[in-house]
Design brief:
Helices cover about 50% and strands about 5% of the residues. The strands form two sheets. A three-stranded antiparallel sheet has the order 1-2-3, with helices on one face. A two-stranded antiparallel ribbon has the order 4-5. Helix 2 crosses helix 4, helix 7 packs across helix 9 and helix 7 crosses helix 10. The chain is elongated and about 75 Å long. The protein has twelve helices and five strands. It starts with a helix and ends in a 12-residue tail after the last helix.
């Protein structure tokens, strides 16, 4: 089945635009042309932007295309999830400009959504959405993926309850979490855990125990990796087996995946502000204080045993 003339024109322009570049850019241009073909066939795409390349690359046409792409309208069930939608948006925009330039057509792109400043904490509504995620992380048929969501949900819950930096949370041992007393011990004291974080931690600790079951020397770390990885340079790689203490990079990837999932889920909702991808902004919204000595004695004697961090 032949493609519409406007898509054929786009592919010809894409082939011309790809000549100065390598196969990677050529693949991206071909990918965008395929998405444009899906876009003009979509019921939500403006009918007056389907007949010419000029109309397709107008601000109305590109805005409709990028909006459909952000809603994952062009993805099939067997495609891998997008790890970085912002990067995909930048690639799409760049390819549209290259196609228009090669075709001699002016490209009108919609403005990017304003970026949230690094110092701005998340809003109360964003906190509510994150806490709902902590209580109800996505269920997945793959065990490792399901455990990854559980780990991320518990980590976000701990950050919302304590306001602690990511680096501090990653130093915790499993013994620092007392689910019975609903407390988490940090270097500056013990913090009360919310019901949703307590449930998320309980879920994660159960999965963590299954993961480390049978390990010859199980790590005491509260947050552990779910798959083997390598560290070091290419000529001196060191294998890090499953169940090692979670790295900052691993934590970042998990948190960003959660943010992309939630932003896509709530995209288009009136008043919704996209969640920031920086963990720092999440904790800046929290003004939690450790429990007083009197409060701690009422709950547990765990702070009297605060020698956990000596190891």
């Amino acid at each position: 089945m032949s493609e519409p003339p406007v898509i054929q024109q786009a592919r010809e322009a894409a082939a011309t635009a790809a000549r100065p570049y390598g196969p990677s850019r050529a693949g991206q241009l071909n990918w965008v042309c395929g998405e444009l073909a899906s876009a003009i066939a979509h019921k939500d795409f403006p009918t007056d932007c389907r007949d010419s390349l000029t109309a397709l690359l107008s601000e109305r046409g590109t805005d409709a295309y990028l909006t459909l792409a952000a809603r994952n309208e062009f993805r099939t069930h067997n495609m891998a999830p997008v790890r970085n939608p912002l990067w995909s948006d930048r690639v799409r925009r760049r390819c549209l400009v290259l196609i228009g330039t090669a075709a001699g057509v002016a490209v009108e792109l919609p403005l990017h959504p304003p970026a949230r400043p690094l110092h701005t904490p998340i809003t109360l509504e964003q906190q509510r959405v994150l806490r709902d995620f902590v209580l109800h992380p996505p269920h997945h048929h793959r065990t490792i993926t399901r455990w990854r969501w559980q780990r991320t949900a518990a980590l976000i819950g701990c950050a919302l309850d304590t306001g602690s930096p990511e680096s501090t949370l990653l130093t915790l041992h499993a013994t620092h979490a007392d689910l019975e007393q609903k407390t988490l011990v940090l270097p500056d004291g013990a913090y009360r855990l919310s019901p949703e974080t307590t449930q998320a931690l309980s879920r994660w600790l159960t999965s963590r125990a299954r993961l480390l079951d049978g390990a010859p020397r199980p790590t005491p770390a509260l947050w552990v990796s779910l798959g083997a990885s390598f560290r070091g340079k290419a000529d001196a790689l060191v294998l890090r087996p499953t169940g090692m203490p979670l790295t900052v990079k691993g934590s970042h990837l998990g948190y960003q995946d959660a943010v992309y999932h939630l932003n896509a889920l709530h995209a288009g909702r009136p008043g919704w502000e996209p969640l920031p991808t920086r963990f720092e902004q999440l904790r800046r919204a929290v003004e939690a204080q450790p429990m007083t000595v009197a409060q701690t004695h009422e709950v547990t004697e765990v702070t009297a045993e605060a020698t956990f961090f000596a190891s």
